[in-house]
Amino acid sequence: QALLKKRIADGKPHLAAVQKEEKALQAKLQSEESRLETLKNEKIDTNILLAMEAWYQNDDHIAESIAELDKQLAQWRVERQEIASEFEKDGVTLETWESTIHETEQRWQDELTTLQQQETQWNVQAKLAEFADNLENGQPCPLCGALEHPFPMTAHGAQTKTQDFSNKQQEISRQLRTLRERYQRFTHLSLRWKDKTAQLEQQEINLQQWHNRRDTHRAQFCWPSFSATDKTAFLTYKDENRVAEGQIKVVESTIKEVRTQISLAQNKIDKYKNSLSEFEQNLAVAEGVIRQSEAQLRVLQRRDFEKHTQTTLSTKKQTIEQKIKHLED
């Protein structure tokens, strides 16, 4: 009985300590769950964050495409201007080069025709002069048949004149060849200019389409707390959201650990309660036995054992001693 009471007395403080620990854990669990709920409420919806991320990525792609087209257009405009400069170096323009060359060519052709006519006339005169040089007095002229030749034609510097005509014709031919070469070069440059212009026009159409696409895309921006043209607020919030997600994971891990500790504490409480209950039941049984035995005890008189033998008395003595020992235990 004394041992049971000692065990009960020793066990109750342990039970109280575990119950206190379990209560503290329950309070911590409630605090962490409240904190978790607050973090989740303050954290932006992941689906919204992903939607914004996708929107900004698409906007960046459109901006990069526009920038690339602008860069290409600028380069092509420079190339087209370089082609136009080739015409300006020769004193013509893209609009007038062909007519200018045709007019120049016609002028050279006219000059060549005039020169050829002059040469023909000179050749006739030179032939006549040759006839004149061969005239003899008293001999008939092969052209007119006259026997007298008072004023024969003379050709001064015939060889020099002929060479002059040849040089001029060669110079005109060279000018015409140069003109034809210029015409071919300008034709090639003109084709390049037209191709480059067509490319520029098509690229400008593409650029406008990309601008229209960006306008349509930005019209779909539906997050009033953020800017469609400045990602600073979004990136800041994204970083804060990443930190919040880390905090949520830490709190969830803490909650899981606290629940495990609460479960262990509750198991201890159940174990202590069961043990104390068993001890109290055993104590109650022992006290009942004691009360029952005490009720059965009485003071022995001489007449209670004078009729018994020594052996019988010894046996009863042993039985009573055993009961007393049992009660004491």
Number of helices: 6
What's the story with the biggest beta sheet? none
Calculate the terminal CA-CA distance, rounded to whole Å. Answer: 6 Å
Number of strands: 0
- Backbone CA Rg: 64 Å
* Mean pLDDT metric: 83
Low-confidence regions: none
Give the helix proportion (percent range).
Answer: over 70%
Strand content: under 5%
Can you summarize this structure?
The chain is mainly alpha-helical and about 325 residues long. It is built from six helices and no strands.
Describe this structure in words.
- Helices cover 81% and strands 0% of the residues.
- The chain has helices spanning 2-42, 46-89, 97-133, 158-219, 232-296, 310-328.
- Helix 1 runs antiparallel to helix 5 (232-296).
- The protein starts with a helix and ends with a helix.
Mind sketching the topology for me?
Blueprint: H1 2-42, H2 46-89, H3 97-133, H4 158-219, H5 232-296, H6 310-328
